[in-house]
Amino acid sequence: MEQQRLTKPVRRVVIAGGGTAGWMVAAGLSKSLGRLLDIKLIESDEIGTVGVGEATIPTLMNFHHLLEINEQEFMAETMATFKLGISFENWRDVNEDYIHSFGTTGTDHWTAGFQHFWHKGRERGIAGDYGDYCLELKAGLQNRFAHLPNNGMNYAYHMDAGRYAKFLRRFSERFGVQRVEGKIAEVRKNLVSGDIIALRLDSGAELEGDLFIDCTGFRALLIGQTMGVDYDDWSHWLFNDSAVALQTKSVRDAVPYTRSIARDAGWQWQIPLQHRVGNGMVYSSRYTDDESALRTLQAAVDGEALTTPRVIRFTPGQRKQTWKGNCVAIGLASGFLEPIESTSIHLIQRGIIRLMQMFPQDGISQADIDEYNQQADYEIKHIRDFIILHYTVTNRRDTPYWRDAATMKLPPSLQHRIDLFRDTGRVFRVPNELFAENSWIQVMLGQGILPASHHQTADLMGDKELAHFLGNISGTIDRTVAQLPSHQKYVEQYCSGT
Ligand code: FAD
Prior knowledge:
Layout: E1 12-16, H1 20-33, E2 38-43, H2 60-67, H3 71-78, E3 81-83, E4 85-93, E5 96-101, H4 114-123, H5 135-141, E6 156-158, H6 161-174, E7 178-181, E8 184-189, E9 196-201, E10 206-208, E11 211-214, H7 221-226, E12 231-233, E13 242-249, E14 258-263, E15 266-272, E16 276-283, H8 290-300, E17 310-313, E18 317-319, E19 323-324, E20 327-329, E21 335-336, H9 344-357, H10 366-392, H11 400-407, H12 412-424, H13 437-447, H14 456-459, H15 463-482, H16 487-495
Parallel strand pairs: 1-2, 1-11, 2-7, 4-14, 11-20
Antiparallel strand pairs: 3-6, 4-5, 8-9, 9-10, 12-18, 13-16, 13-17, 14-15, 15-16, 18-21, 19-20
Bound molecules: flavin-adenine dinucleotide.
């Protein structure tokens, strides 16, 4: 049967926007398919980038492996530090903290996850904190880090977003990407097919293409303004719609975790880099105003300010389609939830990999578009649920923001997960979901859910056997962590190449 194609073969790719998304797309496409394509990227110095987005999750490593990026070089150039997780402070309640770390906790039995054994141990008074059984969490708490054999330490990075874009620009240009500086003044469309033909810059220059990647950030110049794709607004579940960002000088050693400190109507981030700290407040304009948010932030940061505070607005949600016609949106143009679990750069990378897997070299097919959109939708909805979890499971009732978050009506998919864990301690990761069981359990326990029961397999162990089992795990972790160097020293040595 003849293949149905909506367009002719794709050879000319135009990337609109040169933030983290634009340059990641340029790097991914040029490294994998660059010899077959003519790739141009347009960015506007006058508009600039969103200037935040500096905490990542371990999946970024997969992207860097794909690009064969040298880690030491990347870290030195982006002034990166290692990240082992996120410290959630005041989230469960004021003055109650926990860490959501990377890695796994304990060891599972085939019928029952480690949490069931821990739960039994806790009932019997022979188990420590759940975090005592996770290497990355304990290393993070003690500000220690080292690479371990066989990827024994699961980590991500904090990095300078501006430097990362420049790093990827140099990389992409080596693989043939042409950068064009200028402001897109008009998007020319084929009035019959509705596809984009060319981008006209304010200089008058025109860039024609077969495929256009919209990386224009919140403006969504191509996917939203030109292709008319609507936006699913999720602000009834995700209240935050504003942020104020401020960079400060480092005044202490960089810790290997992001700090997320819950406030009256949002939360504050602290991202330690080698040369500075990224700070910010994410908040809901329905519950506070910019001045109060800024005051709270300024009162909480230490270290001299390096930038002028900048307010950023966003609508939490996603485009109803991220690929329409010959336009694919990647990055903020495709949607944004909020920064709490550092998932946005991950979603950029997933969009790039999906696009590479379905690259329309023979012309665009509607089946590819549908598959791409379906996968993107599935992926972001699970992440959305995981983020809502942090707000809705809490003992905080001290402000209207937290009271409303704790009592909102949840997506059924999330309500089910919470009910299942609360009743039975069970958690199941669905196929292709970003967050694994370990993440769901750490956050559900951390936010204050203690399951009512555990799996019977755990009851087959006597107290002595269980104490031995648990003690072995935490003892091995303690011995390993005690031998690790300080995170700060390790980063300094690693980045200096010694
Ligand atoms: P932008 O950085 O906004 O880039 C848009 C590009 O398009 C720019 O180059 C701009 O010049 C160009 N452009 C726009 N209009 C035109 C035009 N007319 N002509 C020419 N060029 C144009 N993500 C994480 O993974 N971790 C985090 O910790 C994190 N923290 C965040 C905190 C906040 C407060 C916010 C708002 C986001 C955060 N994110 C985070 C998301 C992250 O910042 C973005 O995913 C990432 O920076 C990619 O942005 P972008 O490239 O899509 O958009």
